[in-house]
Amino acid sequence: MQAQVNELDERLAAHDQSDFEGLAAITAERQQVQDQADELESRWLELAEITG
Length: 52
Known about the structure:
Elements: H1 2-14, H2 20-51
Helix pairs in contact: 1-2
């Protein structure tokens, strides 16, 4: 998932900086991917704690 976040960061950097709607769409997609990654990481840590 980090690769997806990195790709979206690159898309943001390369995107027309005056296209606010396009930037907002990419930013929203990036946030969704980052939220999913954060959720999976939290779950992984919980499971690691349970299994010892």
